[in-house]
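Researcher: Re-running this chain for the archive, since the previous output was lost when a drive failed. Same request as before.
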Amino acid sequence: MRGMAHRSARGASIGLRVRVRLRRWRLDRELADGLLGESTPAQALRARQLADPRNARALACSLRELVDRVEHPGEPPFDAHVPLACDAVRTWREGLLGIAERLEDPVAAGPCGIARVMTLLTDGAGPLYNPASECAIADAIWWVADGLQHCPPHTWECPVVIKLDPAHVAWTCARCGTTATTDDAAVRPA
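Model: Regenerated structure tokens:
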């Protein structure tokens, strides 16, 4: 499946890849909100990009570095990082490290959860950086953890079907974003 995700991303048209690159923040937000039900080609490509295991490992590393920065702060003149909501990070240290551990799990995390991690890490007005954030860090961590949950074994009743190429059909679960492929000629996109 990993090879198929890379092959299908490379096989996407240049125009689609450019559109995804330019709109990735909006697409990430849509995926984080679970808007996979009526998946567009741009959402499908971005979901495959997010689900790349290298991306999940990089996000896990970012979470671990964030916790480490709070536990071992640098000297103020030499620390060029964005200020963190240190009390919130300290309080929810275990939750953040638990998310990092889940991202490093060999069972691939779905794009919904990965998009939620990216949102948490990049939202400067969010609870990791702003103590007065509208969203409490506890709520944000549970939101991310919920997005990282795998659905029960997938059936053909739950997915959105996306045709990749003449020889393969991929389906993406509308809840968790898990993608699988088949070369069964009887399967046709919905």
